[in-house]
Design brief:
Elements (H helix, E strand, L loop, with lengths): L1 E12 L2 E12 L3 E5 L6 H8 L7 E6 L2 E2 L5 H7 L1 E3 L12 H7 L9 H6 L2 H21 L15 H13 L5 E5 L7 H18 L2 E5 L3 H7 L2 E6 L2 E6 L1 H4 L3 H8 L5 H4 L6
Parallel strand pairs: 3-8, 3-9, 6-7, 7-8
Antiparallel strand pairs: 1-2, 1-4, 4-5, 9-10
Amino acid sequence: MKQLSLEDIFLSFGGVNALSGVSFEIKKGSIFAIIGPNGAGKTCILNCISRFYHPEKGRMFFEGLDITRLPTYKISRLGIARTFQNIELFKGMTVLDNIKLGAHVHLRSGVLSGGLYIGKAKNEEMALRKEIEENIIDLLEIQSIRKKVVGTLPYGMQKRVELARALAIRPKLLLLDEPMAGMNLEETEDMARFILDINEEWGITTVLIEHDMGVVMDISDRVCVLDFGVKIAEGPPEDIQKNPHVIQAYLGEEDGAFSKLGLLDI
């Protein structure tokens, strides 16, 4: 069953084509990776889905609903959450408070009870905190830092907190923009494990942009390859890593990164 589909999406900036007729479908419960060289249009795809950018042509559907012209603020209410290539956290707030902000779309208490922190507002906040601590914080193994100020944390931990905030939205679709960027090997392995756990235990469909080809080929169900805003290939990882067009366009040479990683020998 398809959950998200893009049909012939076009996007340009000042006459430069960022996306040229990109189309694909994502199956519910799958991990779908988007790869390509810098400037290929990968983040533009996520920005279109989350409605930060407005496609000039084409249509996008989420669970059968046309979201092409949907206002940005309504996207999270549908169950679409994302992380960013550059960390977008409130550095002066605690880990727990940053995560709770992700769930604001689910809170229903009014201005008065919220301002006075009484009745429904207090009960909602306590229930939310319990849910976050028992589920999200436990899953991502950040119990020990939940009361720490985000700005004091190492980069890898801040990436984990940003993922936690996205999960607080209770997403059906999770958009991850280079979640392993800047991480060391241990942090990368941890993040890959968390993404798999989220997908397998919670059934959340994941769209992943990532430059680490080892991670992409290990955890993805399907891979879409972009080059200068054009989709040049799509398929299971084992097909993509042997596709001559992908090797030439993405790596520029036959003995490129796939070969160096040992990914051509499976």
